[in-house]
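Note to self: the last two entries modelled the partners one at a time, which told us nothing about the interface. This time every component goes in together.
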Amino acid sequence: MRMRIRGLVVAGALGIAAVVLGAADVHPALPPSHVEIHQFAFSPTTLTVPVGATVTWVNGDEEPHTVTSRTGVFASAGLEHEETFSRTFATAGTYQYFCALHPHMTGTVLVR
Amino acid sequence: MDRRGFLECMAWAGTGLAWVVSGGVASSSILGAPRRARAAGTFSFVQVSDTHVGYKGAANPDPLASLSRTITLVNALSPAPAFVLHTGDLTHAQKAGSFDTLAESLKALRTSEVFYIPGEHDVFADGGKEFLQRYGRGTVGDGWRSFDYQGVHFVGLVNVLSYKSGGMGALGDAQLAWLKGDLAPLGTSTPVVVYSHVPLWAVYPAWGWVTGDGEQALALLRRFGSVTVLNGHIHQTLQKVEGTLTFHSARSTAFPQPAPGAAPSPGPLTVPADRLGAMLGLREVRYTETPGPLAVTDLTLEG
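The predicted structure of the combined assembly is written out below.
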C-alpha cells in the first residue's frame, strides 16, 4: 500500500508539472486527474475532465501496460510497475484508448 | 491413413503429461523411456514459446535459468528435432537488449534452425521493425512464412501486428489472401502444421485469447485431412479437436498464466516454487509418414 501511495504522489507531481508547463495560462487551477491501472483494467474506465486538464495514468500492476489512443493521437511507451504517463487535453472531445499489450483493456477520456 | 483427428490423454509420464494425436492407432510417449529409432519418413520438431526475456516478477525469479533448462531438454531429445518453432513473445515488452540476450542464450541450442513468429510483446513498441530486421529473413508480408519439410507443409502466421482496441489478435486481409494462395496448390492429403502466437480459436475472448479473423484461416484449412494448429500466448496447455483440425496451446518457458477466467486478470500466475517447473515447458511434435501418427508431447521442466 505504501508503494501505491508513493506512486500516486509521483504521478501528482508529474501532472501538476505538466499543467504548469503546458496549459497553465488557460487553466492554472486545474487539479491533476488520475487513472489507475490495476488488475488489467483502467479505473475509472471513463474519466470526464475539463478542457486543458492533464490526465496521468499510473500502472499499479507488475505487468507492463500502455496507454494507446484508438486514433493514434497519443501513445505511451510500455509502463512498468508504478511508472506514469501524462497527457494534456487541450481540445474537447471523446478520447478512447486501450493497452497495446492487452487490448481487452479499454478506457475513455471525455473532455468537456 | 485414417485422417480423422483423434486426441487422447495417454498417461502421466513422470512429471510430463503425454498427449498423443494420431490418425488411427494411438501411441504414447513416455518421458525418460527409450525411444524407438527414427524410421524412414519420420522426423520431429520442437515448439518453444513465450520466453519473455526481460521479465522480472514474482511468478519466476529467474526466467533465463528456466530457458536454459528448456534448451538442455531440447538438446537431450532423441531423435534430435529437425528444427525449433518459437511461437512468440521472445521478449517481455521489448526491453532494450532482450533480443540480444535471447540470441545469446539460444547459442547453446544444438538445433540448427529456429523459426520465429512474434508475440505482441515483441512488436508493440515499434510495429515489428526490430523483430523483422532480426528474424524476417525468408518471410513474406509482415513476417508470414511457409515451408515444406519431408512432405509436411508448415505455415507461420502473424496475428499480433494489428491489435485493436477491444482486444483480439488479427491476421488481416493481406495475410489471409496470401494464405489462400499458399494453400491452393496443396492436395488434401498433405499434412499441414499451422503455428501462430495468439490462438486462432476462441479460447477466452474476455482476455483477448482469440484471433478475430482466425475463423477465416481455419475455413481455408478444413479441406485438409490432417491439420495441427499450434499457438502460445496463454502459457498453458489446452487442446481441442474440431473435425480434422487439432489445436494445441503451449506452455511458456518463463511463467504460467491462470486458466481462462480463473483469476481476476490474465497476469502472471505465482505458484509455490516447487510447482513452477511443472508449469513451464516445451513441446515435441513427432511425425511418422506411415502409418501416420502425429504425436504432440508436452514436456515440463520439472524432473
